Amino acid sequence: MTHATPLVLTLVSRSGDAAAIAAAAPGTTGDVADRSGAGWRIAEVGVAGGADLVAWLNAETPAYGADWAITPATNRRKRLLISDMDSTIIGQECLDELADFAGLKAEVSAITERAMRGELDFAGALVQRVAMLKGLNLSALEACHAERVRLNPGARELVATMKAHRARAVLVSGGFGYFTSRVAAMARFDADRANTLMDDGAALTGAVALPILGREAKLTALLEETSALGLTADDALALGDGANDLDMIRAAGLGIAYKAKPIVAAETRARIVHTDLRAALFFQGYAVSEIVGD
Are 272 and 280 in contact (CB under 8 A)? Predict the structure, then answer.
């Protein structure tokens, strides 16, 4: 495969020698730049890219606890951050946690796992799971958010740093607006898009409002948001973990798989598994000193 612009391999670790890994990578095209600092081991090197490099990274980086990205050397700092919520910006699947209040977490989680792996139709799986929660008191939503929902490490710093450099941050979820609105406020996203749980004023009805926001709607959100900013998809960073995130990850100039299902990781050239969401900043060429704290 040929590339119109040079490629950069970025390696990020909290303990492994990122510079040594970069120096050993096949097909390097220049000297290794060590950008480590403040407990982060970060290295960059020019590469030719290709399947051989990806296979090498898959085999070699886990032992070093290193995350990696292969990106074009140009237009690295993105102007739109568009991210999935469940198991990405937060460490939970809200629907699974909500189901726990109905005594159905095991059953609902099993369906969620299959849907995120791409084994089930997302919309159908969502409708099935929501139907199982019919009659659940609305107080369970508040309790679920207060007791269960927690931001993943680096979420606030990722959003704050990109916004400090004129980027827009949008949370887009196949989950529910009750949670995305609150998580967006916690992490300081500019906007959020999600599905709507139907209720009768006291309890869930077991229905979700149509149309359902799923895989295609996430891609649409990316395209609409970049267009509104006068940008293209190449100016976006898309972040997610499940099969319904794939289309927006593929379309984005930088698509990152965060602790993702195999179907997602296999199609990305930027992966966060061992560190945290701040790695998405280093993949864009940000220095440790540029990170904006919580």
Answer: yes
CATH code: domain 1-74 is 3.30.70
Average pLDDT over residues 220-248: 97
Model confidence at 4: pLDDT above 80 = no
Q: Which residues pair with 199 in a beta bridge?
A: 204
The Cα 266–Cα 94 span in angstroms is: 25
CATH of 78-294, one of 3.40.50.1000, 3.90.45.10, 1.20.810.10, 2.40.128.30: 3.40.50.1000
Q: What is the mean pLDDT of residues 262-274?
A: 96
Known catalytic residues are 84, 86
Structure tokens at 49: 């890219």
Indicate the Cα dihedral angle 125, 129, 130, 132, nearest 10°: 140
Q: CB of 112 within 8 A of CB of 95?
A: yes
Residue 294 CB-density burial (10 A; 0-12 exposed, 13-18 middle, 19+ buried): exposed
Spell out the domain ranges in the chain.
Answer: 1-74, 78-294
Contacts of 154 (CB under 8 A, 6+ apart): 275, 276, 277, 278, 279, 280
In sequence order, what DSSP letters do the residues of 46-62 get, joined into one string?
EE--SHHHHHHHHHHSG
Alpha-carbon distances, residue 134 vs 137, 155, 204 (angstroms): 9, 32, 5
Is-above-0.90 flag for pTM? Answer: yes
CB atoms within 10 A of CB 172: 28
Residue that the structure tokens 């296999």 belong to = 266
* Residue 197, H or E segment: strand 197-199
Tens of pLDDT, residue by residue over 115-174, are 999 999 999 999 999 999 999 999 999 999 999 999 999 999 999 999 999 999 999 999
Burial 30-44 (b: 16+ CB within 10 A, else e): eebebbeeeebbbbb
